[in-house]
């Protein structure tokens, strides 16, 4: 019984919303809720950017040869611009007047995938890498939209109702919270520049992912009769590797991507060796199967296939 009376007494106690300490913690609650909501929105947008960027890469993989199809390049460019003007623009608005590094982990996967798609497009079109300045320029926008979504919802959430003795009354909104939200709403009406900040590390990680697509391009082009692309890709990957290994102290992620780069380069170099040394021995219709197998299986696979054909 004493415990029940104590719980009832605790339940009947009211919180003085005019207390400075309560108002301070209400402000902390608002800031944390706003941060968590923004983080979740950025994660969802990053996931959408990743999906659309992968679709663009799959489209670009249809290109082979020294003279790629202009229509496919134009279609890929339209997809990239659509990603920039929708999902990435929304990310830029969310990051407006925010520290981008605070939310970097939320949109980093989508940004890296986008950089991979853009760099793949630039390589197929111009045979060179896209620069960090070019990527940052494409991700800088002019916008008049609000960077804080749901301001009216925040005001309504702050104006909550409570019932005491059958009488309904509204809690008082602290003046500091009203001023912050209203000032943000007025400032967002002005035309200003927003951007998705691209740190150099994210740029390098996106370029490192490009090496896998170039390796697939080199092997796939052989099946379509293009024997020049593998050697061009080999030279390009060797230049990329020399640039990456020139880094001093680098993070764990770059080190892992560098290992993948070496593996992709090794596969392309082995394919070029096979084409150069044994290309005259292997029929063209068997080149892709030979290049797709492991390096140690080149000779055995080829000999077994030739023996089967003789039988």
From TrEMBL:
The cross-references to InterPro entries, in alphabetical order and at most eight, read:
Translin_C, Translin_fam, Translin_N, Translin_sf
Signal peptide range = none
Q: Which CDD domains match?
A: TRAX
What Gene3D superfamilies does UniProt report for this protein, alphabetically? Translin, domain 1, Translin, domain 2
Q: Which UniProt keywords apply?
A: Cytoplasm, Magnesium, Metal-binding, Nucleus
Kindly list the places in or outside the cell where this protein is found, as annotated in its UniProt entry: Cytoplasm; Nucleus
Family of this protein: Belongs to the translin family.
What PANTHER family does the record tag this protein with?
Answer: TRANSLIN AND TRANSLIN ASSOCIATED PROTEIN X (PTHR10741)
Identify this protein by name: Translin-associated protein X
* Source organism (scientific name): Mytilus edulis
């Amino acid at each position: 019984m004493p415990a029940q009376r104590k719980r009832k007494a605790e339940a009947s106690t009211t919180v003085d919303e005019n207390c400075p300490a309560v108002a301070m913690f209400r402000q902390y609650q608002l800031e944390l809720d706003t941060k968590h909501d923004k983080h979740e929105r950025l994660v969802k947008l990053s996931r959408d950017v990743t999906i659309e960027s992968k679709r663009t890469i799959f489209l670009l993989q249809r290109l082979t040869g020294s003279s790629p199809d202009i229509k496919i390049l134009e279609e890929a460019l339209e997809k990239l611009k659509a990603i920039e003007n929708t999902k990435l623009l929304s990310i830029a608005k969310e990051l407006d007047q925010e520290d981008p590094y605070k939310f970097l982990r939320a949109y980093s996967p989508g940004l890296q995938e986008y950089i991979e798609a853009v760099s793949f497009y630039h390589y197929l079109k111009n045979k060179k890498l896209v620069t960090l300045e070019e990527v940052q320029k494409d991700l800088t926008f002019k916008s008049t939209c609000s960077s804080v979504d749901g301001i009216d919802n925040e005001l309504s959430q702050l104006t909550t109702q409570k019932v005491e003795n059958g009488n309904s009354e509204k809690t008082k909104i602290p003046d500091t919270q009203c001023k912050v939200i209203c000032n943000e709403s007025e400032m967002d009406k002005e035309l200003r520049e927003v951007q998705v900040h691209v740190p150099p590390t994210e740029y390098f990680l996106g370029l490192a992912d490009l090496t896998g697509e170039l390796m697939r391009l080199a092997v796939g082009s052989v099946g379509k009769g293009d024997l020049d692309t593998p050697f061009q890709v080999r030279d390009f990957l060797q230049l990329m590797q020399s640039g990456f290994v020139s880094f001093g102290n680098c993070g764990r992620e770059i080190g892992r991507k560098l290992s993948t780069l070496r593996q992709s380069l090794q596969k392309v170099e082995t394919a070029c060796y096979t084409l150069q040394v044994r290309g005259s021995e292997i029929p063209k219709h068997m080149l892709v199967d030979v290049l797709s197998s492991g390096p140690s299986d080149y000779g055995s696979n080829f000999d077994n296939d030739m023996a089967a054909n003789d039988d």
